[in-house]
Amino acid sequence: MRKNRLQALPRRFYSRPTLEVAPDLLGKALIFKNFTGYITETEAYIGQDDEASHAARGITPRSKIMFGQPGLSYVYFIYGMYNCLNFVTEQDGAPGAVLIRGLYLPEMKLHLNGPGKLCRHLGITRAHNGIDIVTAKDFYIADKLHIPAFDTTPRIGISKAKDKPWRYVVTNTALTKFLP
DNA sequence: GAATAGATCCGC
DNA sequence: CGGATCTATTCA
User: Fold this and answer.
1) Over the stretch A4-51, which tens digit does the pLDDT of each residue have?
2) Does the C-beta of A40 come within 7 A of strand B?
């Protein structure tokens, strides 16, 4: 038999300001198929007033999911070879998403640094775009660890809005102290 | 249609 | 620092 399912975070967790959800996701358990990992790095992307966001120019075929129901996955393809995993935030109708940039897999003691590597290792592609992770059984997030310390820095790899300190990283000391 | 920049990663 | 590699979006 399979291990007992952890309690998935409810929709109200995601239906909040993105700048609150992004740091709150640190230390949470991400379950995808037979993988379980701890989220170690996130970035917040909003809409208006965030020139680096896919939603900055309004609704497009790609960005429309950021305007929709919170708690859905948003997976996009970038640089011709990488997928990036996000989760939609804010109330339905308001744009927002959190990019998952780091994941620690305790079973392999493997730290995946970077959104592209993370998706490649787990096998996440655009086929996993738009999945409701509040109700899905093999793709969800659960409350697992309390991470007491994280750093806040500007976001990586963007050319606009470089000043916004919307990247959140679990500190190295918290990593070694709390991760198995 | 064509042009361009892109929420990345790896190797030199 | 440049190349890989393709696509979403913008511009004509």
Assistant:
1) 688 999 999 999 999 999 999 999 999 999 999 999 999 999 998 999
2) no
State the pTM of this model.
0.96
* Nucleic strand B within 7 A of Cβ A174: no
Give buried/exposed letters for A69-90 (b at 16+ CB in 10 A, else e): bbbbbbbbeeeeeebbbbbbbb
Beta bridge partners of A36: A31
Query: Are A29 and A6 within 8 A, CB to CB?
Result: yes
Q: How far is the CA of A58 from the C1' of C12 (A)?
A: 22
Closest CA-bearing residue to C1' of C5: A80
Instruction: Using the C1' atom of nucleotide C6, identify the protein residue whose alpha carbon is closest.
Output: A80
- How many other C-beta atoms are found inside a 10 Å radius of the C-beta of residue A132? 15
Look up residue A4 and give its DSSP letter.
P
